[in-house]
Every structure is written in C-alpha cells, then in structure tokens.
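pasting for the record
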Amino acid sequence: MKPCGRRYLVLAVVAALAALPAAAADKVVRIAVGGWTPGLGNPYASMVSGTNHPYVGMFDALTFLASDGTVEPALATSWQADNSTTWTFKLRPGISFVNGEPMNAAAVVAMVDWLKSQDGQRFFLGSEARNIETVIAADDLTVVFKTKSPMSFFRAASVCWT
C-alpha cells in the first residue's frame, strides 16, 4: 500500500474508533462465560477455570490487590485493625446494586451471613469465611468483622467479599 493510502486508512480507522463511544452509549454489553451453570452468575456459587476471571470486571469487592501487591480501596474507602481479631471497614457512600438497592453495611452483613450458611459453605469462598466469627453493621457505612483467630492478612482477604 502506498504511504498516502496508509494515511487515509489510519484516518478512517481513527474516525471509526472515535465514533464508537457515541454509537455504543445506548448499547448493552453481554459477557458470555463458560462455567456459569449452576451458579448462574452468582460470584460465590460459580467456579471459572482459566487464567482470566471475568467476575473481577463485573463484581466489586471491599478492596482490591494492586499490581504491586498492595491492598487498595474499592467498595471500602478505609479499614483498620482494632485488635488482632477485629477489623472495621468504612464503605463508600452512594453505591447501589444494579437493581437499585443500596450497597451498605447491611448488604455486606447479608453476604457474609450467606457465605457462612450451609448453602454458602458448599462453595470455595464460603470456606474463606469460616474464620469470621461475627460481622455487624455498626452504622449504614461501617462494617465490623470479628474473626475466631488472628488473621494478619484479613484486609487482603477482603478482595473476595462484596
């Protein structure tokens, strides 16, 4: 292809890509993932094999691990170890689920209660919640976790909990 032709091709591609966000603004994004049955999208009731885990892009957690291994805020804006078995997380205000229900301390408590339930214990992440003795909503945006034994890595483990 002649240099002039390449230039027009590049311009055409750039123009087309620039138009994508406007054209896609009212579109629905569908993600297909092998392995969703029987959990049907429940991030705790499904296991996806492979190196790419699609749930990371669809479900937020209290924290996330940065590329350098540090624990960063996500749905929780901050956290502190009150003692060796008690952790307090402050939640980000103004977040809601896709159905409009608020993501608040009561939602976190309900999620942990489910993970600790007989149904939740059948799944991998349910086993991760076994060391949580209690979780309470201290207020609408504050969650207090008490573990059965010290867990120095508790804040890192919170990357699993939404």
